[in-house]
Amino acid sequence: MMHDWNVTRNHVVFMDLPLIFDMEALAKGGIPIHWSDDYGARLGVMPRNGSNKDVVWYEIEPCYVFHPMNSYEDGDKIVLDVARFKKMAFGPEDTGGTPSLLHRWVIDTKKRTVSDQPLDDRPADFPRVADSRIGLKHRFGYMTGLGGDIANQFGRELFKYDLESGKSEAWATNSGGGAASPCSCRRPRRGRGLRAHVRLRRRARRQRPRDHRRPQLRQGPGRAGAPAVRVPYGFHGS
Ligand SMILES: [Fe+2]
């Protein structure tokens, strides 16, 4: 099952990973998706104007990724930053699931290799970069922290990563509701925090977007305009 894919200036990269559809389970009325120990895992690189015959596949260690942060080309290499589960327990009989963590793959298209590099050990997902950096080299990335004792699928923290220095900072909501997916402001300030997020409560009448365009994430957000329409709980843009 492929939930999302990656785009760079000249390529797209598909993630063929071992959460699989199971038609027998569907016929029995169960959840038709589960982890497979036998399926394997691979990344497929295709030129943006290519077709099936142009895809080059790279075997990787089994894992699952719902949401990439961004990807870009660096000479003969393609860099992909993603929220990666070492094992994704999705189906009712799946066991041993692990949290998603920020992870970097580097595909060397000349040597035909892929390298792995964990970038953080804090559970997080819904990664984003500024929309203006999609497919291009990014310095800053943002994720929703998913650690701690949370009773819903969203977290209580936002993380900001400086992928050049290797440093990161965090901001906690310290209130009810979850920090949903960060999203890009229309006019981000160069080199500064540029995220907004919508605080979600399952039954709240009003939603409160927060604007993080301050130099440092830990300074906390300012108010942003109310969303034109209510964001359904569970929606995310990554
Ligand atoms: Fe998603």
Give an overview of the whole structure.
The chain has about 240 residues and is mainly β. It folds into 2 domains: about 1-120; about 120-238, no CATH class. It is built from 1 helix and 19 strands. The strands form 5 sheets. Strands 15, 16, 17, 18 and 19 form a 5-stranded antiparallel β-sheet that branches. A 4-stranded antiparallel β-sheet has the order 1-2-5-6, with no helix packed on it. A 4-stranded antiparallel β-sheet has the order 7-8-9-10, with no helix packed on it. The protein starts with 5 loop residues before the first strand and ends in a 15-residue tail after the last strand. The relative contact order is 0.12. It binds fe (ii) ion. Fe (ii) ion binds near residues 3, 66, 67 and 236.
State the helicity in percent bands.
under 10%
Unreliably modeled segments: none
Mean pLDDT, all residues:
84
Number of strands: 19
Q: List each distinct ligand once.
A: fe (ii) ion
Number of domains: 2
Whole-Å distance between the termini? 17 Å
Helix count, per DSSP? 1
**What fraction of the residues are assigned to beta strands by DSSP?**
35-45%
Q: Give the H and E element order.
A: EEEHEEEEEEEEEEEEEEEE
Task: Give me the secondary-structure category.
Answer: mainly beta
Overall geometry comes to globular
Largest sheet: 5 strands, antiparallel
Give Rg in angstroms: 18 Å
